[in-house]
Amino acid sequence: KGAIIDIRIKIIIPFWILKVIFLQFHTLGAFPHPPFPTSLATYEFFYILNKSRHQ
How far apart are CA 13 and CA 44, in angstroms? Predict the structure, then answer.
C-alpha cells in the first residue's frame, strides 16, 4: 500500500511543480489559462501528502 502512494507522489510532485511554474507564467500573461484545474491539483497534492504521513 505504501509503494502505491510513493509512486503517486513521484508522479504528482513534478506535475505540482510544473503547475506552479505555469501559474507564474500565467500571471505574466504568457498562457491564456492554467494547463489544469489549480485548486484540484493542489488539493490532491496535500491529500496524498497527508495520507502518506498517516501510515
Answer: 10
Q: pTM of the predicted model, to two decimals?
A: 0.33
pLDDT at 7 exceeding the cut of 70: yes
Q: Please spell the DSSP secondary structure of 9-55, one letter per residue.
A: HHHHHHHHHHHHHHHHHHHTTSSSS-SS-HHHHHHHHHHHHHHHHT-
φ/ψ of residue 54, rounded to 5: -85, 0
Check whether 4 has a pLDDT greater than 70: yes
Give the side-chain half-sphere CA count within 13 A for 48: 19
